[in-house]
Amino acid sequence: MAFTTSDAPAAPGLKITTPALPPPSPPSSPPSPLLMDFLTADEIAKTKEESRAASNKGRNDQREKAGETDDSKKTHKTKKQTKNKKQMNKGQDCGADEVRITPVAAIWPPPYYFEDNLRRVRPYHWTYNTYCKERWRGKTLMEVFVSEFRDRPAEYYRMTMEKGDIFVNGKSVGPDHVIQNGDLVSHTMHRHEPPVTAEPIGIIHEDNDMIVINKPSGVPVHPAGRYKFNSVLEIMMAERGPLFRPYPCNRLDRLTSGIMFVAKSVQAADKLGNQIKARTVRKEYVARVVGEFPEGDVVCDQPILSISPKLGLNRVRANGKSARTAFKRLAYYPPTAAAAAADDVHDSSGSEKEKDSGDKGHNDNGNSDEDVKGRPWATKRGYSIVRCLPVTGRTHQIRVHLQYLGHPIQNDPIYANQRVWGVDLGHHDADGTLTSDEDVITRLSRMGKEEAAEAVVYYDDMIERYEKQCAEKMTGETCSVCDTPLYSDPGMHELSLWLHSLRYEDADGAWAYESELPRWALPPEGMAGPTRVGGMEELVQAVKGMEDVEAQAVEGVQQEEEVQAAQ
User: Fold this and answer.
1) What angle is formed at CA 400 by the lines to CA 393 and CA 249, rounded to 5 degrees?
2) CATH number of this structure's domain 206-278
3) Catalytically active residues, by annotation
4) Cut 0.70: pTM above it
5) d(CA 463, CA 472)
6) What is the CATH number of domain 3-191?
7) If pLDDT is split at 50, 70 and 90, which confidence band does 1 have?
8) How many CA atoms lie within 13 A of 467 on its CB side?
9) Dihedral of CA 448/308/442/419: which sign?
């Protein structure tokens, strides 16, 4: 078995021995059996023992050359054992002869396979390496794992630590070990990645510097949380070979689909990134929202505040950051048409297992009963397809503005959920009189995990808990390697958000890229409706018109102040 260490550098003073790694198999040839073998507990233990034996042998050889007597060796060993025992009693690491290595299996090509219209990853062992964060200092190893890494129960971590499979600075430590500044924490675990859609990553344009892709819904951009190989960047590397290095220029949420830019070099990524920051790039989204969205140009310029930075939760607030989004209705489909379209989406995206199962009830609109309990009105007023032009780029801006206008995205698990926001869903609730921030945070926490360290992590945690509630747990089935509970596959309607990045264009007209409308935005069978979207000019003019009105209002106030000053 060959191993390689992870990308994280070794902690200061830590010497990690890495056995040689054979060259990867070419992408076109069958994977090397050596590379496709995954770590087992016995292999990890064997590697630790071999490393320690080699280290001890090297020191003994050096002592013999230096003419050390047997008595001096015994004295030296006794002193060192006494020192190590004192250090362990103080919660410190053992000496150099106790250094362990934390190997990572070399996996190429990634262990993908396809089944039931899903891209799956065979379970594999992986070593996580992370340096001590400031908030971890002075806490025990058990406290850190229980509060920060919530995908496994506390009992699993305690058992793993007692078995010696969690390391600090390359040394096996127990659950009561205290984390200090600069410590490198390593944990080798058996990973089960959730499946994602088997829909391929579409290529809209490619040249020597840039790839413009059509990202499928439900696939995260970067490896994060429970996802590694089932991410856009890893899938692209698997398709193009291990030497390909993608550099994403814009980020879409995991559930959002549509146009993304992936540069082939740092320079190309920086160039487009600077254009986006300078707001010389226009972007348009399309959303499917609840109810009959008003006709004409609608511009929402309500400020957005992060009411909980730790949870990444946002809402309209007068003291928030300025935000502006232009909207224009593309089509409205009344309730009868909405039911037919939703049924079509469910029938075409669910697996055969879901179709045959009668355990999960669905209403006439194709939404699960669990979904409708939180949003019972979501499919009773029909739905609209709406074009969205965000002028600013606040987190969840389009979703928050649509919620404020009373037309949240129809399948939004956060901003269209009455269990979180109450009956009015935050409609025109800029001052929080209908639903307080504290109530929203508490309710949302109940849906997901109680709290997490970072906004993106919390959002994914909440979605994962929501998906697990929708998907039935396989009765009595657990992984034979790590005892992780196994879940049935969630349907595609539970792995997507009806928000699509439709178009990007240069403000000066140098370039423009557009994707096709997603299936959920097309007219239902037997109904007339648009299948394409026109240019952005209408939306741009709507924003410009509001800016002109604001400029005139400011000018009028200034003139009035000048007149009063003259008097």
Assistant:
1) 30
2) 3.30.2350.10
3) 253
4) no
5) 15
6) 3.10.290.10
7) very low
8) 22
9) negative
